[in-house]
Amino acid sequence: MRDIVKKDILEVMEQSLAALEAEDHHALSELSNHVIHDASIFQDDDSVTAAVLIYALSKMAQRCCDEKISFTHIIDFVQQAHDALAEGKEDSYRDMVRRIIAEIQKLDGRLKLYIEEVLDKARIKKASSMHEHGISMARTAELLGISQWELQNYIGKTMISEQHMGVSAPERLKRAREWFK
């Protein structure tokens, strides 16, 4: 496992544990987005697995809170996985993550849907980055097997195009109006 990936996973797991203890589902959701972004950048098994784990935890925590289902044993497993990774026991960490995912699947039968969502989101974020670096939207969508519609929808929400123009939206509007006088 690359050191940067390990460091990021450890940090996200610490924040996830704190969010689970505080029953802060919004924080878990935000962490999930962060890890999905990492998975789209690093594209290694550990990043993708961490993204699936945190996303599934966020969905399960929300559902369990709504339905008053206890999953404290899973929080203990997350702590054990964190500790194993912190000690450099990567195989033990991976075994524990598999165990956590199996436990989540027992509590929530929608795990396969969560995995598909994570992979789809990671692909769309990767496509957005490629488009941001100058590859056409059509070509990017084709390369990553997503629709242009999905990519346009994501890019529209991120406002990436406006960040790189160097000119604010009101200034662009003003210039456009001057052209058509």
Structure overview:
The protein starts with a helix and ends with a helix. The chain has 10 helices and no strands. With 181 residues, the chain is mostly helical. The protein is elongated. The chain folds into 2 domains: 109 residues, no CATH class; 59 residues, no CATH class. α2 packs across α6 and α4 runs antiparallel to α5.
Brief overview:
This protein has 181 residues and is an all-alpha fold. Helix content is 83%, strand content 0%.
Layout of helices and strands, plus pairs?
Elements: H1 3-22, H2 25-42, H3 45-67, H4 72-86, H5 90-107, H6 111-132, H7 137-144, H8 148-158, H9 160-163, H10 169-179
Give the CA-based shape: elongated
State which percent range the strand residues make up: under 5%
How many DSSP E strands? 0
What is the number of independent domains?
2
Describe the main β-sheet briefly. none
Radius of gyration over C-alpha positions, nearest whole angstrom: 20 Å
Residue runs with pLDDT of under 50 for 5 or more positions: 161-165
Level of helix content?
Answer: over 70%
What keywords describe this structure?
elongated; single chain; 83% helix
